[in-house]
């Protein structure tokens, strides 16, 4: 079941370390499967600590000359990387759909989105301005400069196989840092294709390295090696906490984009049709497998039934299938475990009084597919209210007034994305300010863009990605005090 690309060299089955392609020391390889078909589409090296140590050493060796380049030169290289991603958008999208499952249209969109971070940070590279501060004594002059943190280690998830990489590698390389990346085991080919394009763009050897294989072996080396000055992670809160504990030993800087439990609130003055469209985009995109997916739909009681009816009508139009098929809008979940989790949440909700009005079981299309599902009468004691479902299951909760909606929305340890639909201007401000979240979408279900700061509060993480703030996560301040 081979992958056909216009440029076959983008399909790499080896790791990229110090500007060369490598197998694992033990010569072992891991299978990568297409979740739509269950078939193996290729293999990647099963690397561990020793190979990671060499990649970190390569990144360390490459650091002095990379950080010393004038910003304009680093910018040009990162910008070329961006252009190459767009030139190869179709091949990159095909690779992504095969290993991840999302519909081809969504993969194309992700490639453009991923590339946009390279473009944005290529531009920002030239604007890493410092500061001068009036001295505290007559003879003192104070200057603040910004410097790259150094060697960065990145660990990324499978739900956005390209974008979660570029929004770390883009600012890191733009700032003058070097990087070792461990992509998710389920989706390594998108990462390796990016490495191939980085090389073609002129990224010098050692500046960007990709190792695949054992999460604990690679992660353990990344978090314990003193050369690594920064660990940047996107994934679950559970693993994020493990990495934070491990990083404490050498006091590494960290960026953590962790889980969410996004509320999607529909007030009685909302445009219900717009709210339905927003809910579809936020809930069912990537088959519900994004950390900003609406996880709890909170609907005011006076519009509850009407919203549910409209949502069901729209969700039943979603077309489930292999992401390569024309017209498919809902692909498979990443693996069978993900299907089991969706089912567990549905069963738990039903046992506690929820009603299934659509779906509610695995989809006949194959073992990784789940039916687009809607549950009514969801309550806070259900698993679906507490944990990220990461599947195409919408649970509708009922609320009476704004105070109750905000309290319900904030009743979680997570604080990444939130959404609400309503039109009254003072309500809009009150609710936006009342939500304890890093991101608030008002009358929109789509909030991701490279120009805005993406990140969460509470247990959803540390740091921000994208926007002019995003490069700060890869910079240190140095204060120079001069006596004249
Ligand atoms: P997801 O639900 O996205 O798979 P995870 O947190 O399990 O979330 O995984 C995100 C990334 O973290 C993946 O690349 C995974 O391989 C990696 N990972 C998982 N466990 C560890 C670990 N103990 N140390 C380092 N990385 C890990």
TrEMBL record:
Keyword Ribonucleoprotein belongs to the record: no
Pfam families, sorted: Aldedh
Species in which this protein is naturally found: Polaromonas aquatica
InterPro entries from the UniProt entry: Ald_DH/histidinol_DH (IPR016161), Ald_DH_C (IPR016163), Ald_DH_CS_CYS (IPR016160), Ald_DH_CS_GLU (IPR029510), Ald_DH_N (IPR016162), Aldehyde_DH_dom (IPR015590), Aldehyde_DH_Superfamily (IPR050740), Succ_semiAld_DH (IPR010102)
PANTHER family tied to this protein: SUCCINATE-SEMIALDEHYDE DEHYDROGENASE, MITOCHONDRIAL
Database matches in PROSITE patterns: ALDEHYDE_DEHYDR_CYS, ALDEHYDE_DEHYDR_GLU
Active site: 257
Keyword Oxidoreductase attached: yes
Family indicated by similarity: Belongs to the aldehyde dehydrogenase family.
Protein name: NADP-dependent succinate-semialdehyde dehydrogenase
SUPFAM superfamilies: ALDH-like
Residue ranges annotated for the Aldehyde dehydrogenase domain, each copy included: 21-480
Source organism, top-level taxon: Bacteria
Keyword tags: Oxidoreductase
């Amino acid at each position: 079941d081979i992958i056909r690309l216009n440029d076959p060299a983008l399909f790499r089955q080896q790791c990229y370390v110090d500007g060369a392609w490598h197998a694992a020391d033990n010569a072992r390889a891991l299978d990568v499967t297409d979740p739509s078909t269950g078939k193996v589409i290729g293999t990647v090296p099963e690397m561990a600590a020793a190979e990671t140590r060499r990649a970190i050493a390569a990144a360390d060796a490459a650091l002095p000359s990379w950080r010393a380049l004038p910003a304009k030169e680093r910018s040009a290289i990162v910008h070329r990387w961006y252009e190459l991603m767009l030139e190869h958008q179709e091949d990159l999208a095909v690779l992504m759909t095969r290993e991840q499952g999302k519909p081809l249209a969504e993969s194309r969109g992700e490639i453009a989105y991923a590339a946009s971070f390279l473009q944005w940070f290529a531009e920002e590279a030239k604007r890493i301005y410092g500061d001068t501060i009036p001295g505290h004594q007559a003879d003192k002059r104070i200057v603040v400069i910004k410097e790259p943190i150094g060697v960065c280690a990145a660990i990324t998830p499978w739900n956005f196989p390209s974008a979660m990489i570029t929004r770390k590698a883009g600012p890191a390389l733009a700032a003058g840092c070097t990087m070792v990346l461990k992509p998710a085991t389920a989706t390594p080919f998108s990462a390796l294709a990016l490495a191939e394009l980085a090389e073609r763009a002129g990224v010098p050897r050692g500046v960007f390295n990709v190792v695949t294989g054992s999460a604990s072996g690679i992660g353990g080396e990344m978090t314990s090696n003193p050369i690594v000055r920064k660990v940047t992670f996107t994934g679950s809160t559970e693993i994020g906490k493990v990495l934070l504990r491990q990083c404490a030993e050498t006091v590494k800087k960290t960026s953590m984009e962790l889980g969410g439990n996004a509320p999607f609130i529909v007030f009685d003055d909302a445009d219900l049709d717009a709210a339905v469209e927003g809910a579809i985009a936020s809930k069912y995109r990537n088959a519900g497998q994004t950390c900003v997916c609406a996880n709890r739909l909170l609907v005011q009681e006076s519009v509850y039934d009407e919203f549910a009816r409209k949502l069901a009508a729209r969700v039943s139009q979603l077309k489930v299938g292999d992401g390569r098929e024309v017209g498919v809008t809902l692909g498979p979940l990443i693996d069978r475990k993900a299907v089991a989790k969706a089912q567990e949440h549905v069963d738990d909700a039903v046992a506690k009084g929820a009603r299934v009005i659509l779906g509610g079981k695995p989809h006949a299309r194959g073992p990784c597919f789940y039916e687009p599902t809607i549950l009514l009468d969801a309550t806070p004691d259900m698993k679906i209210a507490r944990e990220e479902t990461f599947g195409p299951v919408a649970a509708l909760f009922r609320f009476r007034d704004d105070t109750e909606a905000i309290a319900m929305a904030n009743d979680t340890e997570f604080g990444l994305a939130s959404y609400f639909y309503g039109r009254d201007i003072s309500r809009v401000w009150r609710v936006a300010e009342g939500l304890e979240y890093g991101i608030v979408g008002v009358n929109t279900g789509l909030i991701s863009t490279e120009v805005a700061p993406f990140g969460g509060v509470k247990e959803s993480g540390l740091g921000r990605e994208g926007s002019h703030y995003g490069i700060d996560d890869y910079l240190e301040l140095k204060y120079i005090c001069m006596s004249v």
